[in-house]
Specification:
Blueprint: E1 25-27, E2 33-37, E3 47-48, E4 55-56, E5 61-64, E6 73-74, E7 79-88, E8 94-102, H1 125-134, H2 147-151, E9 161-166, H3 175-182, H4 184-198, E10 203-208, H5 212-222, E11 228-233, H6 242-250, E12 265-269, H7 270-282, E13 288-294, E14 302-307, H8 312-318, E15 325-330, E16 337-338, E17 352-357, H9 374-378, H10 385-393, H11 397-402, H12 413-417, H13 424-438
Parallel strand pairs: 1-14, 9-10, 9-12, 10-11, 13-17
Antiparallel strand pairs: 2-8, 3-5, 4-7, 5-6, 7-8, 13-14, 15-16, 15-17
């Protein structure tokens, strides 16, 4: 058996709480109305193509990518467009959204709904990239970077390795785990499609060792697919961060200020690989995703296949929330964001909806820094969070910049480990914001 891989600077081992890992993927009910944001990705919002009164089908294009760093948006339901106006996001901001009253479930005729797996990859690299673009595929691990941009290698750059990120190191989240268990071959075919788009042969599917069923399924499938291999990684946080994952499985270090492509790598999430398979082999745009609904504030943790635009509150009711809820989080507890509006819609990047009891989110009063260097030891970027915090408190943002605060990946290892309960991550975020604002 090959040696278990990991990165070697910092990292922590938080409690896993993978309480939904045995919950098979099930379909969430269709919402009464779907509220679909036109920006579910990094970059410019898509241009709205529909108006009030229009009828749309499942898979209809309703907003067109506006520029290179943007992504198409498709309807996840069939019915009448009843509103095109600003709507409230999970964080309380307002963005353009398209509201559709659901009437039945009529799909675009071009979508192949046959569950039989399509293994034959016949398209050229250019054709694959165009289909991924037209299908609105974005990175589904969190940031939502448009996938066609990531796989369209710029002139002067070279890629020799694709890494499919199946780590899912955040506590509670199990959406990718279940997807790898139940749809392993589609993910492997998705990796082969991405390889063809990149013009390379090598793909590594990285999975952490606490996902034994997924590892077994993927290893069984990859025996039939030349060039795709499975690497097992240590169950360590933040193993799934791009730079840490590249270091773990290839030994290559991404320099400060650089991107994975600068060390000849491209990283795609397992869910993204599955979406690529569906787009290219089934002509299915990205209008639904797997979402983990979990946390100690839920009676019935689930992994749900959810149409984009479904209110989070629909999923919460389905999973039977407890009465003493202190916080709702979109994503994981380490890097996710607290929800102000529980009726906010599920988007392409919503990997989880967590409900935490009041006792779990109690924030004790900050103590004094004792210079123990725990935050330094756990920082996967090799930073000095205690020093960044001190500079930030004093408004000395350029001094924080000199000690590389802009390299912070906002993983939260420092805050999690600080014995004085200092919100070190918040200071890092504030310093980055002030530096970029000034620039």
């Amino acid at each position: 058996m090959s040696k278990i891989k990991t990165f070697h600077v910092g990292g922590i081992h938080p409690d896993k709480f993978k309480i939904s890992s045995e919950a098979a993927i099930s379909d969430a009910p269709l919402p009464q109305t779907a509220v679909i944001p036109v920006r579910q990705h990094i970059g410019a919002p898509a241009k709205i193509l529909v108006k009030k009164g229009d009828f749309v089908k499942v898979g209809s294009l309703i907003a067109d990518a506006d520029g290179i760093i943007s992504a198409d948006v498709h309807s996840s339901v069939s019915g009448e467009v009843i509103k095109v106006e600003d709507g409230e996001t999970s964080g309380g901001y307002f963005e353009k959204m398209i509201t559709i009253r659901v009437e039945g479930d009529e799909w675009e005729e071009s979508i192949d709904r046959n569950p039989e797996i399509n293994r034959e990859i016949t398209l050229s690299s250019e054709e694959i990239i165009n289909i991924i673009r037209q299908s609105g595929v974005v990175g589904m691990g969190g940031a939502g970077f448009p996938t066609p941009v990531k796989v369209d290698v710029p002139e002067g750059k070279k890629v020799d390795c694709l890494i499919i990120n199946g780590i899912e190191c955040e506590p509670y989240l199990t959406a990718d785990d279940r997807l790898m268990q139940e749809c392993a071959e589609q993910i492997v075919i998705g990796a082969k499609i991405l390889n063809k788009a990149l013009g390379i042969q090598k793909a590594i599917i990285a999975v952490d060792e606490n996902k034994q069923k997924a590892i077994e399924n993927l290893r069984k499938i990859t025996r039939s697919y030349v060039g795709v291999n499975v690497e097992v990684c240590d169950t360590k946080y933040p193993q799934g961060a791009e730079k840490q994952l590249i270091a773990a499985v290839t030994g290559r270090e991404v320099p400060p200020g650089c991107l994975p492509i600068d060390v000849n790598c491209v990283v795609q999430n397992a869910g993204t690989a599955f979406a690529v398979y569906e787009a290219v082999q089934k002509k299915k745009p990205l209008f639904e995703r797997i979402v983990t609904v979990s946390g100690d504030g839920i009676e019935n943790p689930m992994n749900l296949r959810v149409r984009i635009g479904t209110p989070a509150s629909d999923l919460i009711k389905l999973c039977r929330p407890k009465s003493d809820i202190g916080k709702i989080i979109f994503g994981g507890p380490m890097m996710g964001t607290a929800v102000i509006n529980a009726d906010a819609p599920i988007t392409k990047t919503t990997s989880g909806v967590l409900l935490m009891e009041e006792k779990s989110v109690f924030v004790p009063e900050e103590g004094a820094c004792i210079r123990c260097a725990t935050c330094v030891n756990v920082c996967p970027q090799g930073l000095e969070p205690y020093a960044i915090a001190e500079f930030t408190r004093n408004g000395e943002y350029q001094e924080a910049k000199k000690i590389h605060v802009l390299d912070c990946i906002e993983c939260g290892c420092c805050s999690y480990s600080c014995p004085a309960r200092i919100s070190l991550l918040d200071y890092c975020k504030l310093a980055k914001y002030e530096i970029r604002k000034k620039k």
